[in-house]
Design goal:
Distance between the termini of chain A: 12 Å
CATH superfamily of the largest domain in chain B: P-loop containing nucleotide triphosphate hydrolases
Helix content of chain A: under 10%
Shape of chain A: globular
Number of strands of chain B: 14
Oligomer: heterodimer
Strand order of the largest sheet of chain B: 3-2-6-1-7-8-9
Order of helices and strands of chain B: EHEEEEHEHHEHHEHEEHEEEEH
Shape of chain B: globular
Number of helices of chain A: 1
Number of domains of chain B: 2
CATH topology of the largest domain in chain B: Rossmann fold
Distance between the termini of chain B: 26 Å
Structural class of chain B: alpha/beta
CATH architecture of the largest domain in chain B: 3-Layer(aba) Sandwich
Chain lengths: 357, 325
């Protein structure tokens, strides 16, 4: 599907959401927005414990499902069509089916379920998807059916969790680095990626070249996986809470500055290279980034509510949502890149359609 | 660092004290009292807390060192995550109470509220409350570093189990507390019974209220103490040169920050009608202008140190070297 970027008129500034989007006030902090693996459903996870679901291609109908007693802390697409996974501060890991049923995959007493990640499966007709969730220092890995495969212990609380693009490895960030585990290993001992300090989130290069973490000290740290070479990316005025690799892993987009900061992962970079900055200049902090899944473009959300789509090569900026004063807290593309889900701190939610019209 | 706005910030009370001193009893009192408020309580072991309206969060105390050049700058990463999580909830809290383990050093908790921008934006450190056992405190002070640290850091001290000691013993233990920290408010209790208004919403870390509680400021302690931790105060009548003060205090905190548990001051800068308030926890400092000096009141700069190995002549000479002109 082609992406339509020729929609911005030359004259008056226009925001795409007004003509090609739906928007709604959901009344509670939007913790995360995600699409299911088919892109047929979008989910918004809220601080009031509910999930709000909408079908991008249908009429505008929002379904509400109560999932957690407290706040939803994390949201991921399920491996199964139409489904989602959530973790909450009620200590449960939930699985929401395409039919809206809520099942409990795990329950952990008083502990928060803070990170959930999934691998959609190889797509070869085998139900070989994977689910991982973190509860404090522990990561549990489940198969697609929801059977617990293994429990992985870490030295401190897990702050970021991701599978690599092929579902071979699951990677967790924590104090003093990250741990890289092979899902199929008979005995579990991680490859340790070490760097002193508090690592607060992570991104895995789509080709498996590198792991990058965000750090408490307003910097990123990375490890090239082929040789363990360290990468230090600093200069942020604020903490980075959002990281996203472009398709193919050429660029790493990051929040935490008053622009979308992109580090080059080619030509020997990011070591010794300056980052590219897009959509900056207003002195407003970029709070969220999401690289387009097909093209070299990145969506950026800002502390004043502005959302833009930036073309990396040309630096062309397409305004998507006008600044309404409330920080953007989540951005997510549909798998085919035709739709962008947007959430804000006080309950702003929008879904924007980028299909050619 | 400028002081953040207090509007909309949730007050955070840190509750420290040895196992058995009465921390859990106090916490239960706070939570069970019919005050119509809602608190989030961060604890380490889910004990016997009678909670209905409140939220209890179970957490491990996870301290890490910041890579920011301060060798003693340790922070509780678990609190950063928990505060972030709590702020996403639809229900809002009137306060957050953080209970630390018996042997915990209060510094990392306090420093978290200075260091992390997200935590600073959403919450404010209200006070450090330390519960001590009147009977066993002398022994604790003799055999551990942490007991003195917990008293040194405290804004409010709940001197509990007073029914288990004689009046003379009580006087002696209170004198021992005063030798370490002359600036904390002390409440004598049995079974940790006291109104929550004496514990919560103290504003002790508000720059507006720095040094508000110094009843015996001038009756200073020229005599020697046997305590390892002590407090010292200094006053200057001549106005201060801000650049000299910044240079001196910056170097002092960088060099002696590990020994300086808490530093607080109100300064009269030359040519400035507003009071400058200053506070530090170890090496991490915070300062800003607060309201104007009152008419007719002498503009006297005051500085207080609570810590180890305090060298009175050296500190006095250093402070005096900050005079303007």
């Amino acid at each position: 599907m082609a992406l339509d970027t020729q929609v911005a008129p030359k004259a008056a500034p226009e925001f795409l959401v007004e003509r090609r989007g739906v928007q709604r006030a959901l009344g509670a902090y939007v913790v995360a927005a995600r699409f299911d693996p088919t892109g047929q459903r979008a989910a918004f996870a809220l601080g009031d414990g509910t999930l709000r679901l909408i079908r991008p291609q249908g009429p505008e109908e929002w379904a509400e499902i109560a999932v957690h007693d407290g706040a939803v802390l994390t949201l991921a697409p399920d491996c199964r069509a139409g489904g989602f996974l959530t973790g909450g501060d009620d200590a449960t890991l939930r699985r929401i089916g395409a039919d809206g049923t809520v099942a409990t995959l795990a329950s952990h007493g008083m502990r928060w379920v803070e990170q959930v990640a999934s691998f959609p499966g190889s797509g070869k007709g085998k139900a070989d998807g994977l689910i991982a969730a973190s509860i404090g220092k522990r990561v549990q890995v489940f198969d697609e059916a929801g059977t617990l495969l293994k429990t992985l212990e870490h030295p401190s609380t897990v702050t970021g969790l991701a599978f690599d693009a092929r579902g071979k490895r699951v990677i967790a960030s924590h104090y003093n680095g990250a741990s890289l585990w092979f899902v199929a290993a008979k005995t579990d001992s991680p490859r340790k990626l070490e760097w002193k300090g508090s690592h607060t989130g992570l991104a895995v290069h789509p080709e498996g070249d590198a792991v990058v973490t965000a750090m408490q000290e307003n910097a990123l740290h990375g490890w090239r996986l082929s040789d363990g070479q360290h990468m230090r990316m600093s200069g942020y005025p604020s903490k980075t809470r959002s990281l996203s690799f472009s398709r193919g892993g050429k660029w790493l987009a990051s929040s935490g500055a008053d622009a979308i900061v992109l580090w080059p992962f080619f030509g020997g970079g990011p070591m010794g290279k300056a980052p590219t900055e897009l959509a900056g200049g207003d002195g407003v902090l970029c709070t969220e980034v999401a690289c387009h899944p097909q093209q070299e473009m990145v969506a950026g959300g800002f502390a004043d509510g502005l959302v833009v789509l930036a073309d990396i090569a040309s630096s062309r900026i397409l305004p998507v949502v006008p600044p309404n004063g409330v920080a953007i807290s989540t951005l997510a593309w549909s798998p085919d890149g035709t739709r962008l889900a947007i959430g804000g701190e006080q309950g702003f939610a929008a879904l924007v359609d980028f299909t050619k019209q | 660092m400028a002081e953040a706005q207090t509007e909309g910030q949730v007050p955070v009370t840190v509750l420290t004290g040895y196992l058995g001193a009465g921390k859990t009893t106090l916490l239960n009192r706070i939570l069970s009292e019919n005050h119509g408020r809602k608190y989030a309580v961060v604890i380490n072991e889910f004990g016997e807390l009678g909670v209905d309206n409140d939220l209890v969060v179970d957490s491990d105390e996870e301290v890490f060192e910041m890579n920011n050049g301060c060798i003693c700058c340790t922070v509780r990463g678990d609190l950063i995550r928990i505060v972030g999580g709590l702020m996403k909830r639809a229900d809002k809290f009137d306060g957050i109470i953080i209970e630390t383990t018996g042997l915990a050093n209060p510094a990392p908790v306090a420093q978290t509220f200075f260091v992390d921008e997200g935590v600073r934006a959403r919450t404010r450190l209200d006070a450090i409350v330390t519960v001590v056992d009147a009977k066993h405190l002398p022994q604790r002070l003799a055999d551990s570093h942490e007991a003195a640290d917990q008293i040194a850091f405290a804004d409010v001290i709940v001197l509990n189990k007073t029914d288990l000691v004689s009046p003379a013993e009580l006087e002696a233990v209170e004198a021992q507390i005063r030798a370490i920290n002359r600036f904390a408010v002390i409440h004598r209790t049995t079974r940790a019974a006291l109104p929550i208004g004496q514990i919560l919403n103290q504003g002790a870390f508000s720059l507006d209220r720095v040094l508000e509680n110094d009843p015996d400021f001038l009756t200073d302690d020229e005599h020697e103490h046997n305590e390892d931790v002590s407090s010292m105060s200094f006053e200057l009548d001549a106005p201060i040169d801000p650049e000299r003060f910044n240079a001196w205090i910056g170097a002092l905190l960088a060099e002696k920050g590990q020994d300086l548990l808490r530093t607080k001051g109100i300064l009269a800068y030359a040519g400035e009608d507003r009071r400058f308030a200053f506070q530090a926890v170890h090496m991490i400092a915070d300062g800003d202008f607060i309201g104007p000096w009152k008419e007719g009141v002498p503009r006297r700069s005051r500085l207080v140190f609570i810590g180890r190995n305090l060298n009175r002549p050296q500190l006095r000479r250093g402070f005096e070297s900050c005079q303007a002109g």
